[in-house]
Task: inverse folding
């Protein structure tokens, strides 16, 4: 029986590694599992719990928008500097530092909610801190993926699976958060977030990566030079420039609806946090399907046409969403 199970397990592993070669590497498996748990808690907090709590405390769409904007602004400002840091220091150490700072913010939110001492002001400050950590975290998280896979031919699969992990977390986090808010309250969402950071810290610590020798860490002028070189490179590369401009436009006017989901769920659909969780997980489910498709592709040929179709579909979906008055639609 055990021999038969072992053969079946080997066949499954070979099939998985052939289809998804990035999973062959121990570091990537650790990164994937730990970050999925950690990001599910992060997205639960940022996409569901904090917006719902802000609206529940203030009943103001204006203040909800203010919190969303101030949470996003530090991310936008810090991402370029984080990219420079990711090139100069150990990405694993930087990511671990962000996880430690993140768990500190999450524990503060947990304690305040368990003591019934949470206020709009404290939520605003902690949301800004979350935005700062996200700005430091994003470039490091995306660039460390290639360090977890030793074979360059598996990099594209690892990058696609990293997107799958993020999309899965976007589905898992708000879905669990909606259930927790509906049954035991928002404080347990923050508790889940705090505990999820532990998985990320443990798995990052268990990864075996080559040490990186810091360079030019003492020269601030070198940081500005690196930033200038990065912007010059982007300005000269038309494909990268077009994609970044498209993403900026989508971020400005495309996904801004997320900030108003609590208002839409409560006032338009006459629902609760579970309704908002359903709305918040709908888009990530589509994103997850797309990422799974991309992870199985072996070529980028034809993606430009797919990108154009996707942009048109996003616009049509937003118009349809604005006109909908029932949850199922």
Result:
């Amino acid at each position: 029986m055990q021999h038969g199970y072992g053969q079946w397990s080997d066949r499954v592993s070979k099939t998985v590694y052939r289809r998804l070669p990035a999973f062959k590497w121990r570091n990537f498996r650790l990164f994937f599992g730990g970050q999925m748990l950690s990001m599910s808690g992060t997205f639960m907090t940022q996409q569901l719990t904090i917006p719902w709590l802000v609206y529940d405390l203030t009943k103001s769409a204006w203040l909800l928008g203010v919190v969303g904007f101030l949470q996003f602004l530090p991310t936008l400002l810090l991402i370029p500097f984080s990219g420079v840091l990711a090139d100069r220091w150990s990405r694993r150490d930087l990511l671990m530092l962000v996880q430690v700072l993140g768990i500190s913010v999450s524990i503060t939110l947990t304690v305040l909610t368990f003591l019934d001492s949470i206020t709009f002001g404290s939520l605003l400050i902690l949301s800004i801190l979350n935005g700062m950590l996200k700005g430091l975290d994003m470039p490091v998280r995306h660039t460390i993926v290639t360090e977890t896979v030793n074979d360059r031919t598996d990099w594209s699969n690892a990058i696609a699976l990293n997107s799958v992990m993020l999309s899965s977390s976007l589905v898992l986090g708000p879905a669990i958060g909606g259930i927790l808010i509906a049954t035991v309250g928002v404080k347990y969402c923050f508790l889940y977030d705090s505990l999820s950071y532990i998985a990320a810290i443990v798995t990052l610590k268990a990864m075996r990566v080559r040490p990186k020798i810091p360079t030019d860490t003492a020269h601030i002028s070198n940081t500005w030079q690196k930033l200038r070189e990065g912007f010059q490179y982007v300005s000269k590369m038309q494909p990268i420039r077009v994609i970044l401009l498209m993403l900026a436009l989508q971020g400005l006017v495309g996904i801004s609806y997320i900030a108003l989901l609590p208002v839409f769920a409560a006032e338009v659909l006459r629902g609760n946090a579970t309704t908002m969780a359903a709305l918040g997980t709908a888009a990530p489910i589509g994103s997850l399907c797309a990422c799974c498709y991309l992870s199985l592709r072996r070529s980028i040929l034809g993606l430009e046409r797919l990108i154009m179709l996707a942009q048109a579909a996003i616009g049509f979906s937003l118009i349809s969403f604005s006109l909908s008055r029932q949850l199922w639609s």
The radius of gyration is 21 Å.
